[in-house]
Amino acid sequence: MLNALGLLKERRFLPLFTTQFLGAFNDNLFKTAMVLFATYQIFHHPAGEQNFNALATAIGILPFFLLSALSGQLADTHDKARIIRIVKTAEVGIMLLGAGGLLVASSGLTTLGLVMMLLAVLCLGVHSAFFGPIKYAILPQHLEDHEVLGGTGLVEAATYLAILMGTVSAGLLSVRGTAITVLVVAAIGWLMALLVPPAPRMGPKLTVNFNPLTSSWRLINATMHIPRLFLAICAISFFWTMGAVLIIIFPPLVKNVLTADKHVSTFVIALFSIGVAVGSVAINAMLGGKTSAKFAPFCVLAMGACIVVFSLLTRTFPHAPAETLYNLTAFLEIPHGVLIVIVLMAVAVTGGMFVVPLYAFLTTTVTKDQTARTVAANNVVNSGAMVIGAVFVQGLASAGVTPENMLFVVAAMSPVSAWLAYKLHLACD
């Protein structure tokens, strides 16, 4: 990874790295601010809070399912840098809508504000569906083969550091401050996108299929017949399904089970970002730059075990006095609070170590003119799995399953991910 850090000095990597970092920061700042605002200031019932989070998650994921195939085709048949600039221009308009929704909701027009914010989330999903395949697919085009894993690790680590900063900022900024910040960051991201070097089409020009359903089906069929891609995509999909469930249940769990305020919720989410970033860097060092899944089964099993421990800790956590919530200082003064911090860091570190090599498989298994479509196929399958996870959470909540018990459902997915990763290891290493 020390060698990979040298890429940050080069124009073939730095503008893309910065553009995706700012995009991830902005996306997470807005979404976290919206969820915290809805959880702590609009909804006052655990079911309502969890349902809103599930709805927002599903809306944000849906464009990946519908548009990833189209985005992959366009990225593999047009200059990827040009598409990046178009997408980042759209981000400025999206943030105008989202910032307006925050201000409208805070002024008392709650329903209109929520509608505007959820529409912005949908548009951000479209934005990410087109940008997502490019940020990985462009790497083999600008980097040498031995640099791809390091570059992927840097992108992944930066993404989660951006999530960390966006999460922390959402907990600290006022509604007005958030609205101003997302607009400024979107403008800076647009300027950085102008510096991304050209990444023209590498292979023959494609006949683009604009039908989202048939193009998605054909894309998946064209990708999933390759054993190592099939196994990598399935393992990543299980990982993100676990992640989707955790994202949905965490804010209500922190508020209603750990009886803590929004700053603790922000802190808990930030822990994940730090941990995944650490895991992303650590696994590259352990593998010596080689794309391999040999550590992946152990990592995801360890992640599942830590989630079980976390669930057990939440059951014995001492509740705050009635009608009050712990602030961050009070939370960390409780021994249970410190244990929860340690366990959540372990969950995130092992998760980062699991998923980063699998993403590297996506871009190194196929030729450079197919990388965007491969990442897009992964996004289609991942998003479908995450939507299923979001719906599953709502179903479990309606059946009366508590957030701490849903954690066991997440942990139960880890052996399946481990088995898939083991099969991938046998197939490739």
TrEMBL record:
What GO annotations for molecular function exist for this entry? transmembrane transporter activity
Q: Name any GO cellular component annotation.
A: plasma membrane
Q: What species is this protein from?
A: Sphingomonas panacis
Mind telling me what this protein is named? MFS transporter
Q: Where in the cell is it found?
A: Cell membrane
Xref: SUPFAM superfamilies: MFS general substrate transporter
Q: Per the UniProt record, which residue ranges are transmembrane?
A: 21-43, 55-74, 86-105, 111-132, 153-173, 179-196, 229-251, 263-283, 295-314, 334-362, 374-393, 405-422
Quote the InterPro entries the UniProt record gives. MFS (IPR011701), MFS_trans_sf (IPR036259)
What membrane topology does this protein have?
Multi-pass membrane protein
Record keyword Cell membrane present: yes
What does the organism's lineage look like at the top? Bacteria, Pseudomonadati, Pseudomonadota, Alphaproteobacteria, Sphingomonadales
Keyword list (alphabetical) reads:
Cell membrane, Membrane, Transmembrane, Transmembrane helix, Transport
Q: Give the primary localization class.
A: membrane
